[in-house]
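Archive entry: two folds, one per protein. Generate the first.
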Amino acid sequence: MLFVGELLHPAPASGLEERQAVAAELGDRLWIPSHALSLVGVAVLLVGMIAFVRSHPTSDSAPGGLTKGARRAALWATGAIGLYVIQAIPHLVAFVDRDELLAGQATPFLHAYYGLTIVAYPLFGFSVAALAWLSGRTLTHPVVNILVAIVAVAFGLAPILHILTDIAVLDLLFWGAAAVALWFVAIGISALTRQSSATQRSPNAP
């Protein structure tokens, strides 16, 4: 859903000043469906992350166990995703501030989204990067973990770079959330595969 939401996201308007460009995005007919899908996708990711934390105890030897550092990172990531869900709500309804933005008036939903984003995105990106880095071979191959950590850090830096620079291509870093979501899907599939294999090898299996 995050991927579809990103695909549907209105393209930034070029040749306009910042206020007009943002207003053009807010008025785009794809604003609501793209951000509604993103909200649902992040909410599903939160549910999955809670299940992940509950199914991966702190243990260096038990199957699926995490080191203390990795589990701490997972807990931080869960909290960050919860904050991500909260910021996705004003992000979705920010279109109601379009006329006020053009008129130079107060834009509470837009500013709530901006304020939450600058906290939620870095927290999410950096905690997921820590989880990937510290998990060793427990979740996925170490090479995959390193790639995920890089992508997650890039996503965490995305809103900061967006504020500090006018380099449009850096907005591609926001795709990092969808890539991280796919990593969690891969972790879930891998866990189900291992569970199925263990069941088949069990002498008590039918």
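Generate the second and append.
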Amino acid sequence: MDKMRALVLFAHPAVRKSRINVRLRDAIRDCEHVTLHDLYETYPDFSIDVDREQALLTAHDVIVFQHPFYWYSAPAIVKEWLDLVLEHGFAYGRDGNALRGKTWLQAITTGGRDSQYGMGAMNQFTIEEFLRPFEATAHLCGMRWLQPFVLHAAHTADDGEIHAGAEAYRARIDAACAVPDLVLPRTRTQTSETGSA
């Protein structure tokens, strides 16, 4: 079956310390329909090549932002990338239709358990509420927003739980590329209570 092409924008500023995100990344590395693009490796000085990034976006159907959930958001390079690459006239605005109809998937890892997100919990808000600015950006660009892939309790996962999370991530990318009009349910991989996400 033909698949849409996915661009995975991988953003981890401390990748050598990562226990989870590198395993998620490696789980999709050999997928023929996936282009893996490490933003920190490509732009260590944050000098983002806007033309190159826009060409990559244009050549892909599914755009995945994979990163640890830092301070209720994304690592700094993701914000820099969004500010520079999603230009008026390209991504939005009167003639900004380059991303219209494409799919946006946020794939994140959190240190906290699922139960720590929500009204009355330690973090007060749900993951969906924290990711609302990304969802709004996708909407402004005319993109389809998929429910995010979230791997909770990344600091305390054992090897079996990490493996299961990586397999679930690969399956989620495959599904997003195979079924463009289906909004998939959020994947919750709960781990129990060592290391960096």
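Annotation attached to the second fold: Residues 187-196 have pLDDT under 50 and may be disordered. The chain has one domain: 6-189.
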